[in-house]
Design goal:
The structure holds 2 protein chains of 2 kinds. By secondary structure, chain A is mainly β. Chain A has one domain. Chain A is built from 1 helix and 9 strands; from the N terminus they run E-H-E-E-E-E-E-E-E-E. Chain A is globular. In chain A, 32% of the residues are buried. Chain B has a domain of 65 residues. Chain B is an alpha+beta fold. A 4-stranded antiparallel sheet of chain B has the order 1-2-3-4, covered by helices on one side. The N and C termini of chain B lie far apart (39 Å). Chain B has 1 helix and 6 strands, in the order ββββαββ. Classes of the chains: A mainly beta, B alpha+beta. The interface between A and B is medium-sized, with 34 and 22 residues.
Chain lengths: 139, 97
């Protein structure tokens, strides 16, 4: 299991109404080994994504639920398998969750795969949030 | 009692040791996480939990080694399936009860 890393701006964005975590288009961005995200990044333009996502399937996971119970909000996101077809992907190492609904693409969090991976045609990359505790909780 | 063991970095694989028939089984799920897992016995005469874990470790080592090699019949590279399991982010503190 790979550690969750928070972008500092996310808590402010929550407080100021940037995110609707129930309905917005939460999306995974991929960044290369040479360009790791840092906590002070706040919007999509702050990070360096791989140059293109050619022949890669959707990076938009399905939001299963976003509900509060006893004062704890839990955001549940379904597993997503990204499939590469026809040609190889560019190498990437970091998976960044951001909100594609606001124009700036406000950042939420990121995870480090641990090494660079290049998907060849037919390869898959499964992104699997915790299906019990959710991808994030706000307490 | 059946001993169930998961392969932490290969989430589509699970293992069971059945002490009653002394066999180790591998349960393989489709990589996308949906569908029915298929159980296949791969090692017999397993008499202790320690032997079961040794057998599972050997299976995983062989599985990973084979996965990176071309298909033995066609020479064509096999598709690779990578998985990142995301830890939960806990934001804020819980106050009160």
């Amino acid at each position: 299991m790979v550690a969750y890393n928070k972008f500092y701006a996310f808590v402010q964005d929550i407080a100021q109404g940037v995110h609707n975590l129930s309905t917005n288009a939460l999306t995974y961005a991929l960044t290369p080994t040479a360009n790791p995200p840092v906590a002070t990044n706040s919007v999509l333009s702050n990070i360096t994504q791989i140059a293109n996502y050619t022949n890669m399937s959707s990076r938009v996971p399905t939001i299963a639920s976003c509900t509060q119970s006893l004062g704890v909000l839990k955001l549940m996101i379904n597993n997503l398998t990204i499939t590469q077809s026809t040609t190889a992907s560019l190498p990437f190492q970091f998976v960044v969750l951001y909100n594609a609904t606001p124009a700036n693409g406000n950042l939420i969090s990121w995870w480090d795969y641990g090494s660079a991976v290049t998907l060849q045609a037919g390869d898959t990359f499964a992104v699997q949030p915790d299906q019990t505790n959710g991808i994030l909780q706000i307490q | 009692m059946i001993l169930k063991i998961a392969a932490s970095d290969l989430p589509w694989l699970n293992f069971e040791w059945h002490p009653d028939d002394h066999r180790l089984y591998v349960l393989k799920s489709p990589p996308n996480g949906s569908g029915v897992a298929v159980a296949t016995p791969f090692l017999e005469d397993v008499n202790t939990e320690h032997e079961a874990k040794q057998g599972i470790n050997a299976f995983i080592a062989g599985y990973k080694e084979q996965a990176s090699e071309p298909d033995v019949r066609t020479g064509i590279r096999r598709a690779q399936h990578h998985t990142i399991i995301l830890d939960t982010g806990i934001l804020g503190a819980h106050h009160g009860s």
